[in-house]
Amino acid sequence: MRLLVFGGWGQLGADLVLACEGRHQLVRPHRSEVDVTDAVAVQRVVREQRPDAVLNAAAFHKVEACEAEPGAAFAVNAVGAHNVARAAAAEGSVCVFVSTDYVFDGMNDDGYVESHPPRPINVYGVTKAAGERLVEVASPRAVVVRTSGLFGHAGSSGKGGNFIETMLGMASRDEPISVVDDRRFSPTSASDLAERLLQLLESGRAAGIYHLANAGSCSWFELARTTFELAGVQARLTPRASRPDEVPRPTSSVLRDTRSEGAGLPPARPWREALERYLRERNRLDDRMKVPLE
C-alpha cells in the first residue's frame, strides 16, 4: 500500500514511519512543500503520488491559539480537511481524517461511542467537527478516526513536545507541578494509533467513524502521577481544579470503541501499558522521528 500523509512530521507521522517499515510505502511532504489550506497544491501532490490512501494528520490544535485565531483554525481543520478529502476522492484513494475527542461536550460520564452526535464547546472542537462533516461529504470512502491525548516520541510540533515529556522535564528541574484532576479522557500512544490505523486500512473494510484510543481512562493528574511512578521519578505533584478563566474543555471525553473489532482489529492496549512501553523506548529516537524546524 502507498500511503500519503499530510501533517506527517509530527507525533503520529513519526510513528507511522516505523509502523510502515517493511510493510508499506509512506510519503510525507513537509508543510513547506504543500499546505492543506492550498487546494491546488494538495490536488497536485495527490495526483502525482497516486496513493492508495491519504491520511490527513495536519491540524491547528493548540486550544488557546484556536480561540485567538478561529479563522486560521477553521482554514486548517475544516477547509484543509475538505481539500484533502476532495483530492483523495478525485484519485479514488481512501481518505483518513484524524479527529479528536474534543468534538464532544464532555457531559456524558459513560464516555462516547462513534454514533454520539458532536457537541463541541471550544473553537478547536468546532473546527474539527466541521472538518469531519466536510470530509464525509467530499469523500465516499472517508474514514474519520477520533483519538485522545496523543503522546508520541517525536512530540507535537505545534505544542513543543507532549504532556509526558513536559511532566518529566518539570520534575527534573524540581519545579512544583499542578495538574487538573477534573477532566477525564483516554490517553493514547502515537505508536499504538499508527499501528491500528494501518490495520484498519489493511482490513479493506474501513469506512465511517472509528474511535482509536488506548483502552481505559484517567484524569490528567492521574496520567502525570502514573508517569512519575513508572519512570521512578520523584515530583512535587499536586491536583487542581480547572480554572474559570481557562478555555472550556470537555469534562469527560472518554472514547469508547465499538467498531474496530468488526474491522478485524485486536482489542486496544490499556493506556497504562502503552505509557509503560513509551517510557521504556523514549530515548531510542533517530533522525526519521525528529520534527524539522520550519
Topology overview:
Layout: E1 2-6, H1 11-20, E2 25-27, H2 39-49, E3 53-56, H3 63-68, H4 70-90, E4 94-100, H5 123-138, E5 142-147, E6 150-151, H6 163-172, E7 176-180, E8 184-185, E9 188-189, H7 190-203, E10 208-211, E11 218-219, H8 220-231, E12 236-240, H9 271-281
Parallel strand pairs: 1-2, 1-3, 3-4, 4-5, 5-10, 6-9, 7-12
Antiparallel strand pairs: 8-11
Helix pairs in contact: 1-7, 2-4, 4-5, 6-8, 8-9
At a glance:
This protein has about 290 residues and is an alpha/beta fold.
Q: Fill in the CATH topology.
A: Rossmann fold
Q: Please name the fourth-level CATH homologous superfamily.
A: NAD(P)-binding Rossmann-like Domain
Largest beta-sheet characterization:
6 strands, parallel
Supply the CATH class.
Alpha Beta
Q: How many individual domains?
A: 1
Element order, helices and strands?
EHEHEHHEHEEHEEEHEEHEH
End-to-end span in angstroms?
29 Å
Per CATH, the architecture is: 3-Layer(aba) Sandwich
What's the shape? globular
Given helix and strand content, the structural type is alpha/beta
Strand order of the largest sheet: 2-1-3-4-5-10
The unreliable regions are 286-294
What does this structure look like?
- It is globular, with a radius of gyration of 18 Å.
- The protein is an alpha/beta fold.
- Helix 1 packs across helix 7 (190-203) and helix 8 crosses helix 9.
- The chain has a single domain, classed as NAD(P)-binding Rossmann-like Domain (Rossmann fold, 3-Layer(aba) Sandwich).
- The protein contains nine helices and twelve strands.
